[in-house]
Design goal:
This protein is an alpha+beta fold. The protein is built from seven helices and twelve strands. The protein folds into two domains: 115 residues, Alpha-Beta Complex (Ribosomal Protein L22, Chain A), CATH 3.90.470; 121 residues, Ribosomal Protein L22, Chain A (Alpha-Beta Complex). Strands 7, 8, 9, 10, 11 and 12 form a six-stranded antiparallel beta sheet that branches. It has a four-stranded antiparallel beta sheet with strand order 1-2-6-5. The protein is globular and about 50 Å long.
Length: 245
């Protein structure tokens, strides 16, 4: 394990009812240049499409893979490389499921053994969505029923958290089930029904047939937590026959 990983990645315990213990590997990073030497010193492969990418994308990829290394370290003695699929998704070892996320200055990863019985996991971190761009995101991410439900919370969630929560939760759901669905689908594939603030859990309803186990009408739970005053994280665990928990 590299010195960089040991010094900068921290572990965030995330207990979920009826699920195995989860430890999310997180890192905060500065907008510094990441070069080929950074990849080599951390033991991370540098794919051609990342080598040719803009510095922001290189940082996201590097720190996301760094967190993936940390998340896998307790599960196996030798940490493998995480490849990239044709839809740019991380390719995990056959005995693991995992998910990687990054925001402007944060990255995180979570990994579970397949032996836990889960078939997918998705994690997402978002900076609170506000300002001029929020209205455009709102039109894409949430339907009228979801917006009416969120408006019912009044000031309890603040001005920017409701939209951020629903956007992040749908991103986590996509990551968790993508390996089974194997195609892109829109934000309206699931619809928010309920938020339990005390349990930090949201309930969604599937609105289209995605797989034989994720048909229209299936309910799924997605967990959330505030990482600090400006960042929210969501987590989705999925198991065939049981939906997301």
């Amino acid at each position: 394990m590299s010195v960089l990983l040991q010094e900068h990645v921290y572990r965030l315990d995330w207990p979920v009812d009826r699920a195995p213990p989860l430890a999310v590997a997180c890192i905060r990073f500065q907008p510094e240049t990441i070069d080929a030497d950074s990849f080599r010193s951390a033991g991370i492969d540098l794919p051609p499409h990342i080598a040719a990418a803009v510095p922001k994308r290189q940082r996201e990829f590097f720190y996301g893979r760094l967190c993936a290394q940390a998340a896998m370290a307790p599960l196996r003695p030798h940490i493998p490389q995480i490849g990239t699929g044709r839809m740019r998704e991380p390719l995990w070892p056959v005995d693991l499921i995992g998910s990687i996320t990054h925001a402007a200055d944060m990255a995180a990863a979570v990994v579970l053994p397949v032996s836990t019985g889960y078939h997918g996991v998705g994690i997402d971190i978002e900076h609170l969505l506000g300002g001029p761009g929020a209205q455009e995101v709102r039109a894409i991410v949430a339907n009228d029923a979801e917006l009416r439900y969120l408006a019912g919370f009044g000031d309890a969630l603040g001005p920017d958290l409701p939209l951020t929560l629903i956007f992040s939760a749908k991103e986590s759901f996509f990551k968790a089930v993508h390996g089974e669905v194997r195609r892109y689908f829109d934000f309206d594939a699931i619809e928010l029904e309920h938020i339990d603030l005390s349990a930090r859990r949201m309930r969604f309803r599937v609105c289209e047939d995605l797989t034989p186990d994720l048909r229209r009408g299936v309910r799924c739970g997605i967990h959330f937590r505030m990482l600090d005053a400006t960042h929210v994280a969501t987590l989705c665990l999925w198991r065939r026959g049981a939906g997301a928990v």
